[in-house]
Amino acid sequence: MTHSSHKTGSKLWSHRSASRRQAMQIGAVGLLGLGTNHLAGLREATAADGVAPSGKAKSCIFIFLSGGLAQHESFDMKPDAPENIRGEFRPISTQTPGLQICEHLPMLAERSRMWALCRSLTHPINEHSAAHHVMLTGHSDLPTGFSPNKPSREDRASIAALAGYATTPRNNLPPAVVLPERLVHSSGRIIPGQHAGNMGTQHDPWMIEASPFHNTSYGAFPEYHFDHQDRGKPDDRLFQAPQLTLPDGLGMKTVQGRLQLLETLKHQRRHLTDFQAVANFDRMRQGAVSLMTKSSVHEALNVTKADEKSLDRYGRNSFGWSLLMARRLVAAGVNLVQVNLGNDETWDTHGNAFPHLKNNLFPPTDRAVSALLDDLKSTGELDETLIVMAGEFGRTPQITLLEKHYKQAGRDHWGAAQSVLFAGGGIQGGNVIGKTDAHGAYPSERPVKPENFAATIYDALGIPATAAWRDAQDRPHHIYNGEPIAGLS
């Protein structure tokens, strides 16, 4: 992506540390007692120091495939490799001459002029939780003291949190949202890398919990749910977005009374009159109420009651509903929506890989992503909406059979190579960046790191290359840690 124009909505902290800390104190106030920590704290506009991002996109939909999509079974097939590497699936041609993908992604194949691939994303981690942190934060290395078993406020901030911090909220809505569930291990522990980490809780993205947790069922329920190990436990979950209504006993009169309590903060606000923090503070207050009163938000969340045509195109399942919700939220004004297509390890195809991908994972994904592309294209919004789809890693070249757990074969974890899909936001459809070796094991051309992946999102959203956030000790932390992937646009 080329650097051409500065997006005026990008935000940075200024260098006046005393005022910044005062602003953070005010931003931490629970305005309504309704858990508003998902809203961005008070921010200050600064110049971009002369470095301008491309800023083609108003928004980004980050589709995350927890568990790790097998590149050999999707976007980087190796039909000429030995049988124990190429697998059961066969490639089909797309609308882009010379570009082939898996036969079980026919709808995406028909739309190849709308998306591009990077086949050479690589990092050194083969463990699920650590690799989640790597890909969700855009850092190849792990922070000191990192624990895969427990998220920590010493973890790094997620891409969603940083994008939410560094872009201007539109229409009083949270700038960053994660749906339809937070990623939870089958043991019940939360997967690291999903929140704002060392930036603080006030910068956590807004979590929409629409998909109840189930520790042995995966996929796009109710149509395509499955269990990796076929343990036979029932899955009666309902996909239901939260109702943004006031808590019991808290009517609007009470809310108005609580809002008046802000007058007690006047002594703090006097110290903030030399910049726009007061106006931002008022917008933060308005945003808390807007979440409950804005009709477009209620409509965006009420996806299971969408019109029949939309449900037919996206699919009547958690994958389709999630991407329809994401599409509506960006239309309503959310800057970045992370969509987890399945809970933790849904795409972890160690065994029974070929029937589960063919019958349960690819059909709802192919349909819903294609519907999203069609929707955005038909309204002219695709050029201003970046879509990215990735997991925490790829899968091993060799097919293996873990007889103790699975009846049929699959592939193990593999951080060294994965394929990532990009669309919209200035992406040139049909492009293919990078290449892996004959077995799909390692990049042989143009290796790309998670830092480049994250930078591509930040750049498309118009976040300046010099952007940084500052911690409580006033130390700067750069948002960019690599260059955007070249050649996508």
UniProtKB/TrEMBL annotation:
Pfam families, A to Z: DUF1501
PROSITE patterns, per the entry: TAT
Designated name of the protein: DUF1501 domain-containing protein
Organism annotation: Roseimaritima multifibrata
Taxonomic path: Bacteria, Pseudomonadati, Planctomycetota, Planctomycetia, Pirellulales
TM segment ranges: none
InterPro entries from the UniProt entry: Alkaline_phosphatase_core_sf, DUF1501, TAT_signal
